[in-house]
Amino acid sequence: MSMNATELIQSYFDSDAVARLARLVGLEPEMTGRVLEAGILLQLQALSQSARNPEGEAMIAEAVGALPAFGSVADALDESGGADHLQQAGEMLAPALLGEAANRLPAQVAAQTGADPASVQTLLQMTLPLLLSALGQRGLQAGNIAPMLASLGGAGLEDPQPDGAPVTETASETKTIVVSVAETAVIGAVRVEAEAVTPEAPEELSNEGAPEEVESVESPPAGVVPAALETSPPASVPPAPASQDSISPEVEPLDPGTPEGLLKFLQQRFGGVVGQQIGAVAGFGGGVRKQAALAALPVVLAALVGKAEAGSKLDALARPFAPLTDEDGQVNTALLDSPVEVARIEGQGRGLMASLFGDVNAVTGRLGSALGGSGDSSRRLLALLTPLVLSVLTRAQPAGLAALPWSGLSDGLKGTLPSGFSSLGVLIDSLASGTPLPGTAPTPAPAAPRSMPTGAPARPSPLKPPRPARFETPAPPPSPPARRGGGFPLWLIPLLLLLVLGGYWLVQSRQSADPVTPTPVPDTAAPTSETSTLGTAAGGGMPAMPVQPVFTDPQSGAAVPASGFTLRGTGPSEEVLEVFLGDTRVGGATVGPDGAWSLEVGDGAPIGPQTYTLRNAAGGEMAALNVVVGTADVDGADTTPAGTGGSDTTVPGPRR
């Protein structure tokens, strides 16, 4: 480890920071220090590797600019939900900034230190945004990223291997790179030639090898590939056919109104460069990166077919994602170049997965097995691809998604799978028909809430005065309702809304000279538009992104009266929302033209800590609110609705 990297760890990750991080991940401070020392060096190496190309360097610069300048680790942890936000920031940034090394680093560090792999993974996820913030405060910015990372310990080291040894480039490995990346063929050929020429007799190899290559292309000297011949194929070899990406796929106009035309329309939008970019952002490498999006496309369509035939309102589901594509349905690849925008799209896609795919773990597991990747990479792929597919479908049929040929689409889905991915046919059939996957247990129906008989209140004894309230021992509060598995973590929603609620630092993009920052909508606030202006470039190049429904009042953790209170929030205009307490529906509300909604909760809400969840019309969980019922002043409760959003009625709280 270089001295600069050691200094960085000892100054920023001091003993107090190590002790606090150790408590959070369940490791001893001494072990935590060893994990940080090994893990930060490997993260620096992976960042340095990523910064060797302009795209990777730009992504690192944007991520550093989006994070705040934490004065210390304690400052980051002391923020509301700081540890959770740090972990999720690292989870989302690692695949984009560290590449394929993101999946290997936890196991590698665990093997080096002997620490628990799960604790190591959590610690490294929390460390990455802290490391980027520290680097930004030390002057890391666009223009000096590659040399500065090299000086901190990432110079001259290739992407680390699982056993901790750096990659040693051989002629065969260089050949693999030349085959998979055509544009670097000449560079790779020169590198092989340089490795084959020994310093003892450079002139002999050069003088003997070149004439033999000119006279006989079929028998070149071992290990020598002259750069002059690598630029064009030998005369005896017929020229390779033109790449599919260079041939215009639109031979004849497509009709998205037919199943065949719609499938071809979608394949064109997610093939070629766009598909490769989606696969790379999701964390896939090698040849799978080029096919991952096209292999997952029929899986997403099968889920939409199942929902369409079940009568779901797909238009309301797809409408917020229209800005992700242009009028011709072409994906805006500039969004995929930004880690902040990728995190936002992924977060919104994860909010749809439970309602679309049902058993998300089973679906991502099958997809990951077919693609040869992990379930996490497959989950990320579906979370990114689903909003983009919905956006393209809105462009394919302006009359609405209900006008698309859903009934005939399922028959051709398996035929669109790329070669080698036919095993996904079982998954496609299951999603299109709405039946459980073979080998998985069907999801049990939620049990109806048990009604408790209401008896007459007990009469106090006239011989014994009631005990003063202040001496009563309060009953232990009931545990919060269990969160349903398979959905997007509700506590993570504020992190992905780009300041819809304000104050969440993860997704703060670098602002222009005159920034526009959306704020929560109070009772007298000006109308809120349906799309957030955050992320829009000064020149108007970046499209506005959709706003998700959220709670704005009361604040999380606030005390509310048991006699009744009002829930308020914001969301897209005219969107129909439902509020649940656990699995029990509390009531519904429609977002008004000003972007605000409210719902009055009557008396009868369960006493103690409670978690209310907000769902859209498709059943996707959008936000969560933790309150404590029964400890606020009843007379001080505010039940005046905010904005023009209306609720279906004033509903009593669910009784248990």
Automatic annotation (TrEMBL):
Disordered as annotated region, ranges: 197-253, 437-484, 512-532, 636-656
Residues forming coiled coils: none
Ubl conjugation is among the record's keywords: no
Alphabetical UniProt keywords: Membrane, Transmembrane, Transmembrane helix
Keyword Transmembrane helix included in the entry's annotation: yes
Position of the signal peptide: none
Biased composition (Acidic residues): 201-216
Composition skew (Pro residues), residue ranges: 459-481
UniProt cross-references to InterPro entries, sorted A to Z: DUF937 (IPR009282)
Segments of skewed composition (Low complexity): 217-234, 448-458, 636-650
Origin: domain of life: Bacteria
Membrane spanning stretches: 488-507
One Pfam match: DUF937
Protein name as catalogued: DUF937 domain-containing protein
Protein's organism: Deinococcus humi
